[in-house]
Structures
1.
Amino acid sequence: MGHIGTIIEKYRQALNMSRKELSENICSEKHIYLIEKGERSPSVNMLKLLGDRVGVDLLKFYPYLNCENPMEVFKKIQEFNMYRINIEFELLNKVTDEAEEMPDFNKSPWNLEIMLNRLYYSFYIKKQYEETSAQLRNLLKEAEPVYSDDMFTASAYMLIGSCCFIMGDNDNAKKASESAYNIYLKKQEIVMDEKLITTIIINVLGLYYVNCEFDNVISKGNEFLQTKQQINSFDRLHYVYFLVSCSYYAKNQRKEAMEVLKKAVYFLMLDYRPTDVGYIALDPRFIDMLDDLGKESEIIQEFREKYQI
């Protein structure tokens, strides 16, 4: 089993930092030597101080200390999550092939990440929806007693939701998306990728919208928008704005629909996203809303001309 000292030593050496420089005002130089040799374990507070000194959150490496190469396993899993979220499945398949050559990914629990990647590929590339859904449920059962990574679990539930939605099983699609959403609700206690969180929200709001649960779209959508604005993050918020505005419009709350619609339009006049808008424009209610509210707003008319809607 590895120890956190090897991680500290590698980051220190990468910065050409001496043990004396790392230890200054934190502990003795000898104590750093003993930590790096695995003969002492730093406290959580000391670990935070050392992490600040080398510019990395050292606590995030603890789940990987049983690996032969913890830093490489950590790096690969970060790549897995990035390619899943960005829907880059050819690249995901390539990096999965690379990971399979590493001994750590051929044993539990890291082999579960490999299995999840292959199922993403089966869904998006091979389009094997029913088989993928069944295998994902079995994978979650297998993972439950040995692997509690929240990004892994949320990613699996989102993929189940997508499978069910394509197969026309909206009830189970909603249940799976809500399971991923409930993981997001624990965000104060866990660390999750911001893009993954946004994807979870868009998925669950989309399923509420398809099922005409407009109050849920409005309440959960506005709550998420407020959270994102507080941290000054705007990744793909136009999807959320459009879903909320269409839900207001479906409830005949034209004033509220107009207010939220304008926010989405302002974003998309600054950041050109024709693929996103083309997808949203498939909703007849969205077109009806533009026809109706666009009469009262120059910016909406300019938006329609820019995107040829």
2.
Amino acid sequence: MAEQNSLHALAVAHGTSFAPATDNPELPDTAYAATRGSEFGRIAPGNSMKWDTTEPQQGQFSLAKSDVITDFAPDHGQTVRGHTLVRLSRLPGWVTSMPSAQVEAAMTNHNAAVAGPYRGEVAARDVVNEPLNDDRTFRTSPFCNAMGSGYIATALRTAHPADPDAELYINDGNTEGLGAKSDAMYSLARELVAEGGPIDGVGFQGHLAVQYRTAAMSSPKTGADRYLEVGLGSGSLAAGTSTGEIQPRLDKTDGSNFDKADDYSRTTGTAASHVGISVDGDLVWGTEP
């Protein structure tokens, strides 16, 4: 459980959250697990809830790896962010080769079968992951090919009844600043809210590599604030809860140009209070291989 002076406690004091993505190979490391359990208030799986892991063969579901994550969380007083139900990569071959007429039924069944067993155990869930190209067009996928961009609304609608108390998100990279892709995500969010969703927030899967000092690292608050305008900042999504995430990624192969005071402040201190911070990687402090 997160301690009084933990990263989690410090983040909560500033109206946000701080948590790393974790996967099963990391948790048997006792030192890692101890720090993971004491410093953070939320856990998100890296890959263990994705389609190739949870439904490798059609209709044959395997939740053993994601169970490890959801079992770890309550033992350490943490909440779970589910990641992710519908994504164009990490799909088993049977999905990519499926006739278009069968895709919607398969997606609906998958969402119910993966989200349903965790009813009440997952606080927030990324339903659709990385749907957009940088030029603001929709990425090619079995889902978009079969249903057009409407697959996103369908995915949200089919995930909600399986776990009605979980907050539902769409998320993508390179949307935390301002530009063509973030404009497209903003427009998509507005449309989904206008249609009645269900959608609770937008995740900025920032992948902000500090070694490159990307321009977006200086402006996540700018990109985040405008989502309040479309109705994603009231009720259960008031400031202080996680209406999104930003993922700073640090490169452990060369730490020579990493400045803790500068780089962490860029990706965390500039984020609006309604945005949670998730560090991605196999070390506790968000370092990726």
